Amino acid sequence: MTIEKKTIRSDIPGHHTLMNGSLSYAGTPQEESRRLIVGRDITLNGDIACCDCLIVEGTVHAQGFTARRLDILEVGFFAGSAEVQDVVVAGRFEGKLVVPGRLTVKSTGRIYGEIEYGVLEAEAGAKVEGQLAALAQIPMQETVPALEAQDHNDNVESLYEGEGDAGETTEERPRVFRRAIGF
Fold first, then answer.
1. d(CA 137, CA 9)
2. pLDDT tens, 86-115?
3. Which end of the chain is more exposed for a tag (fewer CB within 10 A), N or C?
4. C-alpha triplet 33, 67, 70: angle, nearest 5°
5. In this predicted model, what pLDDT tens digit does every residue of 128-165 receive, in sequence order?
6. Do the Cβ atoms of 126 and 107 come closer than 8 Å?
7. Please, what sign has the CA dihedral across residues 164, 167, 168, 170?
């Protein structure tokens, strides 16, 4: 009986992490089963369905791609349209990209086309050309009930001379600070 020893090929970038299973973005077993890795020198044309995480090190041409995460590595290229929750671009993207979550563009990243994003993070050296539009965020006023300020509080004394005096005239006069805070 001969035992064959598997060697790690150094000519394939990232191969040692795939062999060891130590990918930093590894999720639940269900998410891992829905991950697609397009390796270097591989070209993928067509529709990609039921993919939660796409890692592009080669070339992908896809229209209407939808996923939870898209990583375009330094040598990767994605052309087409995509709607992805979170995107990291270290390579090149061309087309229409809708990112409701976080769009991260690394220093080696290049994006050309129409981009809509929730949060944009770009490192120095990143290049983004085309139309940029921030997706509408929920205003803070709708999520947090507004506190209405009282017009007048008897327990608070005025810090400025003449403020609140009944004998004020209509002419403008400078406000003079009456005392220092904390004394």
1. 46
2. 999 999 999 999 999 999 999 999 999 999
3. N
4. 90
5. 999 999 987 655 444 444 445 555 555 555 555 555 55
6. yes
7. positive
The three-state secondary structure class of 21 is: coil
Residue 8 φ/ψ, nearest 5 degrees:
-90, 125
Which tokens sit at 163? 């403020």
The answer to whether 183 and 168 have CB atoms below 8 angstroms apart is no
Q: Which helix (H) or strand (E) holds 33?
A: helix 29-33
The residue among 78, 105, 116, 109 whose CA lies nearest residue 94 is 78
pLDDT over 70, % of the chain: 56
| Prediction pTM value | 0.60
CA distance 16 to 29: 20
Which tokens is 72 given? 């375009």
Cα three-residue angle 103-132-42, rounded to 5 degrees: 55
What are the distances in angstroms from CA 4 to CA 7, 11, 15, 132? 9, 20, 18, 53
Per-residue buried b or exposed e for 71-83, using 16+ beta carbons within 10 Å of the residue's own CB: bbbebbbbbbbbe
Instruction: Please state the length of the chain.
Output: 183
